Amino acid sequence: MSGYADPGFDTLALHAGAAPDPTTGARAVPIHLTTSFVFESSEHAQSLFNLERAGHVYSRISNPTNAVLEQRVAALEGGIGAITTASGQAALHLSVATLMGAGSHIVASTALYGGSQNLLHYTMRRFGIETTFVKPGDIDGWKAAIRPTTKLLFGETVGNPGLDVLDIPTVSTIAHEAGVPLLVDSTLTSPWLMKPLELGADLVYHSATKFLSGHGTVIGGIVVDGGSFDWASAYAKTGRFEELAAPYEGFHNMNFSEESTVGAFLLRARREGLRDFGACMSPHSAWLILQGVETLGLRMERHMRNTEKVVQFLASQPFVARVGHPMLESHPSHALAQKLLPRGAGSVFSFDLKGNRDQGKKFIETLKVFSHLANVGDCRSLVIHPASTTHFRMTDEALAAGGITQGTIRLSIGLEDADDLIDDLKRALKAAEKAGA
Amino acid sequence: MELLVNNAKTYCYTGGKPFDAAKPTVVFIHGVLNDHSVWILQSRYLANHGYNVLAVDLPGHCRSAGEAPATVEEAADFIAALLDAAGADKAALVGHSWGSLIALEAASRLKERVTHLVLVGTAYPMKVSPVLIETSLNDPMKALNMINVFSRSTLAAPPSALGPGTWVFGAGMALGKRVLASNTAVNVFHRGFVACDRYAHGEQAMAAITCPVLMLLGAQDQMTQPRAAQPLIAQAKATGKRLQVVTLPVGHHQMTETPDETLFAIRDFLKLS
Prior knowledge:
The complex is a heterodimer. Chain A is α/β, with parallel strands linked by helices.
């Protein structure tokens, strides 16, 4: 049972990492908009730079407002700490760049956000890091794709666009048997729906732009370390992860695994990754995201209640060919979702109209409550028609390979009254159906 | 640095510095289900400010081989052997929790070889509840959560032992799991707790030591409550020891919840001659 000494999710969402400001008494977390922090003395400066004492030096590396967000999300995820980044993509890049260099290899799910797919398939390849993509449910495929140079397995809790649920316990076991960590993008589920670290993942990251922020106001990312992966043992057995388990000339010849038995990844990611790549989060962004995190539990509960009603409505409509949400028994990940996501598999999903591209466009244009834009995880309900926007250059065959039809619509269900959302969808369905007559 | 102690590979964190016989030496001794890394800020600071540092992984814990000590006395013998293996004629001993009892017992045996004794989060007798001992054996994950709950005093620790953004509670949980998993032959959690619970020579040991003593206590410590240190404090006073008692506004995670205050107290105490 939770209590003062062992608080539950909502208490952590409000209190983890923050206490009343000792100088001013401010109860809310202050925004520390400062680039730098004054040293008490030359000796203090030297100690901070040499990691002999903990503290803030320069806001690219750390900042008190960001540190609250980092502690808070780490607490909610069950991790040892976190690093805020400029975006979710920056969190993924920081994770990859901390763990490997040219000549390394990643095994990743095919069901990824397009930006992540681009980063791994094109951009990282240009820097000598190759990725093999496997379908998230192809367990033998995950095993077969691992090479001696593999340094990371990577997937999304529920994959884009079909909401394939990643079998984290099974994939993490495969990863660990091969001496490799599992990184999970948990953006679409948030720690309220799933805690990947408890299921076996080693690292988890979010586009905090989405549900953590929840208000469509800010871009940000965060990566959390579970402290579970033994980099030193893996290095001793396979020679992999010298980045974390051998002296690093680029930072005082520090062996990060010796410095911290469980925190080597975070040490190097902050001390090298933020220092050199510099994709840090603004303290103002951190503060905005904190406002969202404080109500995460309340919002997710409402997101899921609304989603359930909307999914049930759409599934009953004759002009809807398919609804792709794991809460439905027809979804291939239904059983896995029941097991790993008992509170629900998220409020972002797609469905197919029985119509052509023009009917899809008509549907979108008729909606009044849903906003037509390229984002998810807002408190407002959002919609996009992939065939006429994000995927408009693709042929029907290419769309089909990605699980998208001319009539596929992606929804992100917000916090409005469910009846208003259903009414909006009802009118748009009618208009789309007429457009095909 | 790796040393051969009692024919077993023994790991000591040294702050990346080679041992220099001309410098004073400080040995850091961790508690149950911890390792050298709980001292990381204090040990790294001292290693860069004129001291040899030996932040040891006790035998059978994480990077050190050998049989995990079953008693405080066995562990104290190991500390003596460690000093010999390192070539340290003298050393200051700094111990946390179980490590404080090991440091106390070792200091009583090593007499003048120990220059300073620092007992962090200490108690004597260090009785462990039968429920916790039993749970550490039969449901160690539950017991691990219990001790981390008992150990913390705040949800908002200052920049701490990995630097800003560290969730101290989670770090304690992860380290405990790692240490437990590092020894597949022995449950070092249960063995350490039993060793704490059964140690019965604390007052004799305090009477026998010849060096100054610092007790660094946590005002909100629920694992080793400040009042549980009173018998040792009384014995130190009764036997004329140079004693300092510093009480910090913290729980049992002294080194991570109040890293600077813990460091400064140790640093200033080590300057005593």
